[in-house]
Amino acid sequence: MKLARAICLIGLVASLAAIWGGQSQAQNVLGGGIETLVGTPENPLDVGIGIKIDQITSVDQKAENYGAVVILRAEWADPALAFDPEEFGRDIRVFNPSALVEHATDIGAVVPAFVIHNQQSNKWIHESAASLRSDGRVFYVEKSSLTLQAPYFDFRNYPFDTQEFHFDIVSVFPSDYVSYYPLNELSGLGDLLGEEEWILQNDRLETSQVIGLSGRESDQVALVFEGKRHLTYYVIRVFLPMLVLVSVGWALFFLDEYRRRIEIAGGNLLVFVAFNWAISADLPKLGYLTFLDFILQCMFLMTGALIVFNVALRRLKVSGREGTARKLDNYAIKWIYPLGYAAIVGYAVFAYLLVP
């Protein structure tokens, strides 16, 4: 029991906040001076956690984070918070969150504390409230906006990638003293997220234990959901222009003048450079190639090789070996160019999209 009483709230409390005067405040609430025992190893305090994302305000791929407007709910029962409904004239008391903390402290009860594990910015509270029933059951709700880290982003299959988004809530107290259970019916994604680039789906609550702020295993509840891209955008803005450029490169073989071929292929080369810069601007500086990077780099090399090949054909023609140049040219038209691109695309699909 001595060890149990030594484990106190180490000055860090829930990400819950108060609203005064109708103005949002950037702060974490349900905090301040809670220094009483929360549960016991024989009877830990059970806390229900609900996470519902109402809006997605942004998805920043380069910074690997996303902004959200979220509704957090928590509920728990503590007999120490029970009161006589006849004395107060009603069965429910409504508190400002900070007032609930003060009330719990005054009577020797406690409020469970938690942190949003992947929070990156201040949390701006729009609305928040807490209700206390006469039997000691507490219900807390808040609507807030914040920016959250998305460390599980992996762009290897870009733009055919499926990304995983997390919203992680971790208890400040060890699992021996406070345990979490999910409020599935009060969690998930809203119907109007306001996000056009991504198709967000497969939302679920996951419970686990992680090393918390106390340095011991603490309960975690995470809202996990997946996002896929609208491929129509990439088909129209990326793959269709790339197909046109490849077709133009193939059409060059039907020009008899090698000098004109070299000029047009050089223009294509500059277009591929611009493509590469435009696409890389949307992604962080990765230590690996994405699916689209691989295709673009191979197209870049093929276009460069096309210029060198036409220079070689012109040299053969100038040196009087035009017949040899014609044979090589015909071979390139029928086999090298089309089969080369087919091999590039086939390998990219296999290596990036089919192999786990």
UniProtKB/TrEMBL annotation:
Membrane topology: Multi-pass membrane protein
Coiled-coil spans in chain: none
Location of this chain's protein in the cell: Membrane
Entries under Pfam families matching the protein: Neur_chan_LBD (PF02931)
Residue ranges occupied by any Neurotransmitter-gated ion-channel ligand-binding domain in the UniProt entry: 41-171
Main localization category: membrane
Signal sequence, start to end: 1-26
InterPro entries membership: Neur_chan_lig-bd, Neur_chan_lig-bd_sf, Neur_channel, Neuro-gated_channel_TM_sf, Neuro_actylchol_rec
Keywords attached to this entry: Membrane, Signal, Transmembrane, Transmembrane helix
Ranges that cross the membrane: 234-255, 262-279, 291-313, 334-355
PANTHER family in the record: NEUROTRANSMITTER GATED ION CHANNEL
Protein name: Neurotransmitter-gated ion-channel ligand-binding domain-containing protein
